[in-house]
Amino acid sequence: MGTILITTAIVTAFTGLLALLLTVAENTIANYGELKLVINDDKEYVVKGGSSLLSTLIDQKIFIPSACGGRGTCGYCKVKVLEGGGPVLPTELPWLTEEEINDHIRLSCQCKVKENMKIEIPEELFNVREYEVTVELIEDMTEEIKKLRLRLKEGEEIEFKPGQYIQLKVPTYEGNDEEVYRAYSIATPPSIKNYIDLYIGYTGGIATTYIHKFLKEGDKVYINGPYGHFYYHDNPDREMIMVAVATGIAPILSILRYMKDNNIQRKATFYFGAKTPKDLFELELIEELEKELYDFRFIPTLSRVKEEHNWTGERGRVNIALEKYVDNGENKEAYLCGSPGMIDTVVEVLTKKGFTEESIYYDKF
Amino acid sequence: MTDISPWVIFFASIFTNNMIFSNFLGMCSFISVSNEIPTSLGLGQAVTFVLTFTTILNYLIYNYILVPLGLEYLRFIIFIITIAAFVQLLEMVVEKYFPNLYYTLGIFLPLITVNCVILAVSLFMVIRNYTFLQSIGFAVGSGIGWTLAIAAMAGAKQKIKNNKLPKGLEGPGITLIITGLMALAFVGFSGIVQIQ
Question: Judging by DSSP bridges, how do beta strands A360-364 and A105-107 pair with one another?
């Protein structure tokens, strides 16, 4: 009995002593005091030094896209560090190209705030926030695609540009033991500020399995955003060519509804690729848009139609319809959203028609 | 056992009693971080560094605190706590005062807190009744030996990077086979000196 007590006492005393030593060290050696963080030359923050740039920014409610949560395994959280930050660490090297290193790009989750710093981040990231939202509706659109309506808390609003995306945080569930973030485009227009709609196709991956098999109406999930450079560009004299397949319809619907809300009078044509008539969805909404928009035409094209479908519309993949209807790239701009394969093919077709690189906007997923 | 020169122990722990090749200790980081020579050299330096200091610290704690109090049986738990705390402290100091050192080995420090070589050296030191100088020779030698092993492994892995392997052998499988072959080669040194 005596031995047990002595052992416990000694070990406790010893660990206590070391813990005390470490606490003292934490507050003296690892204490970098209050530092100045200047963002984009105009915003100045006083921050507590010692932690990573990513978490320091999160403390200031500035969210940098990061899929791995700061472990240095995704390479998304790049920012430009102009002053301070020290040399590029070996843990960052796998994610940075030589060009980026010369351009002072760093991974914000690895770079620590130990001195006054000057950094540059895209202006739109100041709008990025985290929201706790409630799943209000899960509706089957097709056999593989579900619509998800996420309602923000009472009094909260989300500001975004039509075409941008949010990241949905997928918690751990049975069969998945890591938290992940996945990006989904917002289908609702910016005028709707207290809920967003997403279309989610089933792929069998971590996130889509969660949404299709586990998520229920009334559940709470976390989203952050908005992100992305794919959004409506205000070039009133250009005709718009929109191309999407499957869930790629989401940002296009957001843009079209934005045009309706703001009474934008531009000619627009939307080419939508699917396999069979069963894969077409939100047709009522599109029909309504066709009636109400200034000059809008919807061209669905199906690649696997059979006799029994009685399909009278376009056949083949979207690039075939584009070849047929788009005459040249003069005074036009294109908005593409779909798989990398589809985007590459379509960009090739459009370039051949005379579209310049700067007149094609796309979102690969 | 106490009349061997620290230098003999130093060389023996690099070649004949290499921690990896004769004891198979410190395998987890050896397997996972041995993909590139520069990284493995960095990790090796960090291991040597921590090994030397924790062995000195543990020697003092063992001989001047645990033995007088008759608490030798607590050495496992005390050693591991000392190592963990020391690495934490070391990381903070290096990060603040030696930015260049932090750049080369600071990021590896958290990785090696749980490297079993570090604990093994402290425990062998006790089992083999080493003196203070012998312990230092043993610690530095073991660290260099470990660095040598991981650098050699990284070199071998770089050579076979583009070769086609049977699916089941990819990754740790082939690493363990190479380790075994290298260990056989190191057996060749074993007649030179004996320290245990």
Answer: unpaired
Give domain limits for chain B.
6-187
* Contact of B12 with B190, CB cutoff 8 Å: no
Residue A177 CB burial class (10 angstroms; 0-12, 13-18, ≥19): exposed
CB distance A21–B89 less than 8 Å?
yes
The verdict on pTM exceeding 0.80 is no
Beta strand extents in chain A (DSSP E only): 34-39, 43-48, 78-83, 105-107, 117-120, 129-140, 145-151, 165-170, 180-185, 195-201, 220-227, 239-245, 267-274, 295-302, 314-315, 332-338, 360-364
Calpha distance B186→A136 (Å, rounded): 66
Q: Which residues in chain B have Cβ-Cβ distances shorter than 8 Å to A50?
A: none
CB–CB of B81/A15 below 8 Å? yes
- Burial label for A358, CB within 10 Å (0-12, 13-18, 19+), is exposed
Amino acid, res. A228: G
Q: Does residue A355 belong to any structural domain of this protein? A: yes
Best of B39, B41, B81 to substitute, by most chain A Cβ atoms within 10 angstroms, is: B81
Give the tens place of pLDDT for each residue, A215-269.
999 999 999 888 888 899 999 889 999 999 999 999 999 999 999 999 999 999 9
**CA-to-CA distance for A193 and A188, rounded, in angstroms?**
9
| Chain B residues inside the 8 Å CB shell of A112 | 95
Chain A residues in contact with B99 (beta carbon < 8 A):
86-87
Residues A65 and A169 occupy one common structural domain: no
Last residue of a domain, one of A175, A203, A227: A227
Identify any residues that bridge with A173 across adjacent strands, giving them in sequence order: A176
Q: Is B98 touching A (CB cutoff 8 A)?
A: no
Cβ of residue A26 closer than 8 Å to a chain B Cβ: yes
CB contact under 8 Å between A29 and B96, yes or no, is: yes
List chain B pLDDT tens, one digit each, 196 residues. Answer: 567 888 999 998 998 888 888 888 888 888 877 778 888 888 888 889 899 999 999 999 999 988 998 888 889 999 999 999 998 888 888 888 887 777 777 667 777 777 888 999 999 999 999 999 999 999 999 999 999 999 999 999 888 888 888 888 888 888 899 999 999 988 888 777 777 6
Phi and psi at residue B76, in whole multiples of 5°? -60, -55
What is the distance in angstroms between the Cα of A22 and the nearest Cα belonging to chain B? 7
- Chain A residues with CB inside 8 Å of B78's CB? 11, 14
Give chain A's domain count: 3
Six-digit token string for A158: 């989300």
Tokens 């608490």, residue? B71
CATH number at residue A330: 3.40.50.80
Interchain proximity A22–B107, CB inside 8 Å: no
A11 closest CB neighbour out of B74, B85, B95: B74
Which ipTM was obtained for this model? 0.75
Rounded to the nearest angstrom, the minimum Cα separation between A193 and chain B is 44
